[in-house]
C-alpha cells in the first residue's frame, strides 16, 4: 500500500473517532438544548462521511466503490444541521423558521434524487492519484456543490458576521470560534473536491477539516452556555481531547505496526507497543494530575466568591436592623423588613453555595443535631407567612401525625424547605393555597409541600431536578429564575441521606414535593 494512501486511511479513521467523541461531548453537555443537539448530529454526519469515504476510495470494484461513496450525501446534512445549529445559537429560530424548514425540505429533495437516480450524483468510480478508486461526478453533482458548498455556507457566514457586529464582548468572543470554524474549516474541507474534477491537489490536506471545524465549533457552543469561566472550560475541553487523541493514537499505532515491520524489518516487534504504552502512561498521569487541579480551582472559585459575599451581606443586615429601629413610619418599617427579608434570602443562598462546595471536597461527615420537626416547620412558617400574604396566598401547616424528634443537619434541611416554599410562592397564583404536611411513613419523617400552581406535565416531570432546566410555562411566570434551586435542593437532600421527589396530576393541577428524613 502506498504511503500516501496509508496515511490517508489512518487519518480518516482517526477523524471518525474524533467526530464521534466531539458529538458525544457536545450532546451530553446539554442534551435538551437545540444548538447542542443539532451540532452533535452535524458531527455524526461528519463521521458517516469519513467512514463512507475511506471505505469507498479503497474499494477496488468501481461500481461497489460508487455505491459506498453515495453515502457522501451526508455533506448535504452536515451543512443543513450546521446552519440550524448557528440559527439556534443566535436565538433566531422563530425569526428564521421558514429558512430552517426550507433547507430541510431542500435536503430531503436532493437526498431522494440521489438515492433514486444515483448517476446524477456520482458515476462509477475511477482510479485517481494514489486512490484505487475516487469520485466521478454525475450530471447534477455540481448543483449539489453550488447549493451546499457555496450558497448555504455563505448564508451561514453572513448570519454570523451580522451577529458578531451587533453582539457584546462575550457574544463576539464566542462567535469568533464559529466564524473561524465555518470559514477556515469549510475551506479546508473543500480541498478533496478538487480531485473530483481532476484537479490534482492532494486530498489529504482536507482531512484536517474535523480539527479546524469541529473543535472550534464545539468549544464555542459548549463553553459559553452560562458563565464565561474560560480557564476551566479550556482546560476541561483540552483534557477531553487529549484523552480522545491518545486513544486514537494507540489505535493508529497498532494499525500501522505491521506496515512499519515491513518497512523496517530490523525493528523488534515489541518496540511499538512499548513506546505506545509509555506515552499512554505519561499522558494519562498528566491528565489525571491536571484534572485534579481543575477541580481544586473550581472549588476555590466557588468558595472564595461565596465567602466574599458573606461580609457585605452581613454588613447590610446590621445596617437594616439599625435603620429599622429608627424608622418613623409603619410604611418605612414595612419596606425595610422587605429588604431585610431579601437580604436573608441572599445570605441563605450564599451559605448553600458554601455548603455545596464543601460537600464536594469533604469526607462525607455531616454535623447532626436533634430537631423537633413540628417546632422547626412552625418557625419556617412564621418566617414565610408575610411573603405569602403579599400575594394573598393561604399558607398553613398541617400535622397529620405527631413526629418524633430526629437527628439531621438543620441548615441543610432549612435550605431545602426554603427552595420548595419559594418555588410554591412563585408559581401559585393569587388567592391560591400552599400547605405543609407532616407525617411518618416507613419509619421516616415526611415533610410535604403542596401548592396550587402550574403543575407538571408528564414530559416535564423527569427533568424537574435538572440543572438550569425551566419549562416554557415557568419562564413566562418567573422571567428571572435560573433553574438551579430545585437542582441544589436535590443535591443537598442526597448529601444528607434524605429523599426528595415531586408528584403532580398535570398542568395547572398543582405540585407536591415530598422530603423524607431518616428517623
UniProtKB/TrEMBL annotation:
Subcellular location: Cell membrane
Keyword field contains Plastid: no
Topology versus the membrane: Multi-pass membrane protein
A Pfam family this chain is assigned to: HATPase_c
Main location: membrane
Residues passing through the membrane, by range: 6-28, 35-56, 68-91, 98-117, 142-165, 177-199, 205-224, 236-255, 267-288
Protein name: histidine kinase
Catalyzed reaction equations: ATP + protein L-histidine = ADP + protein N-phospho-L-histidine
Histidine kinase domain sequence ranges: 304-519
PROSITE patterns, sorted: HIS_KIN
Enzyme Commission number: 2.7.13.3
Assigned GO CC terms: plasma membrane
GO process annotations (BP): cellular response to phosphate starvation
Organism of derivation: Candidatus Taylorbacteria bacterium RIFCSPLOWO2_01_FULL_45_15b
Amino acid at each position: 500500500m502506498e504511503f500516501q494512501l496509508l496515511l490517508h486511511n489512518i487519518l480518516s479513521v482517526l477523524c471518525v473517532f474524533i467526530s464521534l467523541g466531539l458529538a458525544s461531548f457536545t450532546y451530553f453537555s446539554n442534551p435538551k438544548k437545540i444548538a447542542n443537539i443539532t451540532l452533535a448530529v452535524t458531527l455524526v454526519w461528519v463521521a458517516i462521511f469519513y467512514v463512507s469515504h475511506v471505505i469507498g476510495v479503497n474499494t477496488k470494484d468501481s461500481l461497489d466503490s460508487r455505491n459506498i461513496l453515495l453515502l457522501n450525501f451526508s455533506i448535504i446534512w452536515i451543512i443543513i444541521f450546521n446552519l440550524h445549529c448557528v440559527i439556534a445559537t443566535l436565538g433566531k429560530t422563530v425569526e428564521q423558521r421558514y429558512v430552517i424548514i426550507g433547507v430541510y425540505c431542500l435536503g430531503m429533495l436532493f437526498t431522494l434524487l440521489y438515492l433514486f437516480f444515483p448517476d446524477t450524483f456520482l458515476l462509477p468510480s475511477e482510479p485517481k492519484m494514489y486512490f484505487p478508486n475516487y469520485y466521478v461526478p454525475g450530471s447534477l453533482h455540481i448543483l449539489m456543490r453550488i447549493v451546499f458548498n457555496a450558497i448555504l455556507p455563505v448564508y451561514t457566514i453572513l448570519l454570523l458576521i451580522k451577529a458578531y457586529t451587533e453582539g457584546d464582548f462575550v457574544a463576539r468572543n464566542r462567535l469568533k470560534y464559529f466564524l473561524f470554524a465555518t470559514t477556515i474549516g469549510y475551506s479546508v474541507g473543500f480541498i478533496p473536491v478538487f480531485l473530483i474534477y481532476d484537479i490534482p491537489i492532494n486530498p489529504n490536506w482536507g482531512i484536517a477539516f474535523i480539527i479546524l471545524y469541529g473543535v472550534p465549533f464545539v468549544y464555542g457552543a459548549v463553553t459559553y452556555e452560562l458563565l464565561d469561566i474560560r480557564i476551566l472550560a479550556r482546560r476541561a475541553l483540552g483534557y477531553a481531547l487529549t484523552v480522545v487523541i491518545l486513544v486514537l493514537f494507540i489505535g493508529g499505532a497498532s494499525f500501522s505496526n505491521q506496515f512499519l515491520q515491513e518497512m523496517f524489518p530490523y525493528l523488534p516487534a515489541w518496540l511499538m507497543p512499548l513506546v505506545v504504552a509509555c506515552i499512554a502512561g505519561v499522558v494519562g498521569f498528566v491528565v489525571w494530575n491536571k484534572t485534579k487541579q481543575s477541580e481544586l480551582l473550581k472549588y476555590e472559585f466557588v468558595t472564595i466568591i461565596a465567602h466574599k459575599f458573606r461580609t457585605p451581606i452581613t454588613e447590610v443586615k446590621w445596617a437594616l436592623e439599625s435603620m429599622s429601629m429608627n424608622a418613623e413610619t409603619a410604611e418605612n418599617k414595612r419596606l425595610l423588613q422587605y429588604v431585610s427579608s431579601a437580604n436573608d434570602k441572599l445570605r441563605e443562598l450564599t451559605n448553600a453555595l458554601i455548603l455545596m462546595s464543601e460537600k464536594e471536597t469533604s469526607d462525607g461527615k455531616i454535623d447532626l443535631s436533634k430537631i423537633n420537626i413540628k417546632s422547626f416547620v412552625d418557625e419556617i412558617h412564621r418566617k414565610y407567612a408575610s411573603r405569602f400574604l403579599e400575594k394573598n396566598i393561604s399558607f398553613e401547616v398541617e400535622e397529620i401525625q405527631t413526629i418524633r424528634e430526629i437527628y439531621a443537619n438543620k441548615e441543610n434541611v432549612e435550605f431545602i424547605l426554603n427552595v420548595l416554599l419559594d418555588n410554591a410562592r412563585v408559581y401559585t397564583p393569587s388567592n391560591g393555597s400552599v400547605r405543609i404536611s407532616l407525617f411518618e411513613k416507613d419509619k421516616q419523617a415526611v415533610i410535604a409541600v403542596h401548592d396550587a400552581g402550574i403543575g407538571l406535565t408528564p414530559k416535564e416531570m423527569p427533568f424537574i431536578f435538572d440543572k438550569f432546566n425551566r419549562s416554557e410555562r415557568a419562564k413566562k411566570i418567573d422571567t428571572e429564575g435560573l433553574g438551579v434551586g430545585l437542582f441544589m435542593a436535590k443535591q443537598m437532600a442526597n448529601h444528607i441521606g434524605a429523599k426528595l421527589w415531586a408528584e403532580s396530576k398535570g398542568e395547572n393541577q398543582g405540585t407536591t414535593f415530598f422530603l423524607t428524613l431518616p428517623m
